[in-house]
Amino acid sequence: xxxxxxxxxxxxxxxxxxxxxxxxxxxxxxxxxxxxxxxxxxxxxxxxxxxxxxxxxxxxxxxxxxxxxxxxxxxxxxxxxxxxxxxxxxxxxxxxxxxxxxxxxxxxxxxxxxxxxxxxxxxxxxxxxxxxxxxxxxxxxxxxxxxxxxxxxxxxxxxxxxxxxxxxxxxxxxxxxxxxxxxxxxxxxxxxxxxxxxxxxxxxxxxxxxxxxxxxxxxxxxxxxxxxxxxxxxxxxxxxxxxxxxxxxx
Length: 250
Description:
The chain is of the alpha+beta class.
């Protein structure tokens, strides 16, 4: 490894960056980190433990140092910001195609937040303003944001939910979710997942409106359009990631 990279002028950060860069190639023992970074053993140990405290570094089953979950969380957050920047044209097109209000939801802990919306200009509508905080226990977007979670998180998310594991299995099979008067009486919705480059579900694209207009099986009518809109955003994320990687290489 090249330890002669330019200094930022903040020594401790430069050394921490050396540790993280060394772990890019895979798990490392402390001795291997010392060799890879060229840092003194006590310094390497202190930095690795401090990075572990902040979840930038973790340990594998053999106790070796590995890159931690905080890095992927930050990467996902950066990707989600790119997603938000591209969402409105897709939501407007979805609204115009279906005639229903459209939204983009992201999960935040035990809740979901509407981060973008395109409302119908006339007629009956289900208004979900940008910034609205809704439950993860009801609604098609909640189903989508939970359906592809790890088993333990999925099980916890189902506790107290108005949908069940069988419904989420159907969501995974067909690629979209629907709800009828689940979140709010008289309101129906259809949602589909937006994925990052790793395949992780980052957000849910939705449409919502009165049950009287959308019907008792809104997914049959609108599922393909909502899935297509979600796939457009997923494709944008893939292309943005490729451009970012090419820019870094350049």
